[in-house]
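Lecture notes, part 5. Sequence design as translation. It can be helpful to think of inverse folding as translation between two languages: the language of shapes and the language of residues. The source text, in structure tokens, appears below.
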């Protein structure tokens, strides 16, 4: 395993674009801290975002997981570019000539995906913990470490999404087309949901069906947190339209994404095994 990881490390080490994208991703996660210092002058009052409770424990785990997950496209570009470079630089063929099996090749890529997800999750946990300890109104031990399932969901979501990008990188070979296919797939899921909801079944049944779609299942793991804010809830109650939304993470949602992750890795191997290089 270490040998396979070292092979991928050497490839990424000499890729300037990959290093820039990886650094950008982690820098942007760090920039979440800048939200704390943003102030809006409203009349004679300075409105500070951090004072609205977004960095309170345990809400911060949900909020930061959602924000960081929206930035995952940077690492997705690294993954599809990583596969594109294998074809354009002919390193894939050379690795196979040097004795690396196709199974080991896919395993090396998936290990890289796992490393990206693990490092990202640990980094997010540390940044969130520091921000929470600095700005949270609640610092009791039991409160700090409650709702950590959002960090787990973030890890599972990243792993599934990156496995999907790995499959697209092998399927399409060119990074730009792979990312384009990812966008098209998102549109297809959106259209299918609209058809199921408005033309066939209705909202409840449509929601139950689309939760099994790849991108939708990943999206369901960490839902938007903004409507949980007290200010938003209070405004909604005054308007007579209180939110009835399930923000919790269910075990079956994690299972669905894990199944898709396994399928994407298998499809990647099956495609590479069938393809004549």
């Amino acid at each position: 395993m270490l040998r396979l990881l070292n092979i991928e490390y050497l490839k990424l080490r000499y890729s300037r674009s990959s290093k820039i994208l990886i650094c950008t991703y982690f820098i942007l996660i760090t920039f979440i801290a800048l939200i704390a210092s943003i102030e809006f002058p409203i009349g004679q009052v300075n409105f500070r975002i951090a004072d609205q409770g977004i960095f309170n424990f345990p809400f911060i785990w949900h909020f930061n997981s959602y924000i960081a997950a929206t930035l995952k496209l940077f690492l997705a570009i690294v993954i599809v570019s990583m596969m594109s470079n294998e074809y354009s630089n002919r390193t894939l063929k050379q690795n196979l000539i040097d004795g690396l099996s196709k199974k080991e090749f896919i395993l090396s890529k998936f290990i890289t995906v796992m490393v990206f997800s693990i490092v990202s999750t640990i980094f997010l946990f540390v940044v969130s913990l520091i921000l929470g300890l600095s700005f949270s109104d609640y610092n009791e031990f039991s409160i700090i470490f409650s709702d950590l399932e959002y960090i787990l969901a973030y890890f599972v979501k990243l792993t599934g999404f990156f496995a999907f990008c790995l499959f697209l990188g092998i399927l399409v070979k060119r990074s730009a087309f792979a990312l384009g296919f990812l966008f098209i797939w998102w549109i297809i899921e959106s259209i299918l949901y609209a058809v199921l909801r408005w033309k066939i079944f209705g909202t409840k049944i449509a929601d139950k069906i689309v939760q099994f779609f790849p991108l939708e299942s990943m999206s369901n793991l960490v839902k938007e947190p903004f409507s949980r804010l007290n200010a938003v809830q209070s405004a909604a109650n005054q308007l007579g339209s209180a939110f009835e939304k399930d923000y919790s993470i269910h075990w079956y949602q994690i299972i669905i994404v894990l199944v898709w992750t396994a399928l994407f890795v298998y499809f990647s191997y099956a495609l590479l095994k069938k393809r004549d290089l």
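The translated text above is only one of many valid answers, since several sequences can fold into similar shapes. The chain has a mean pLDDT of 83.
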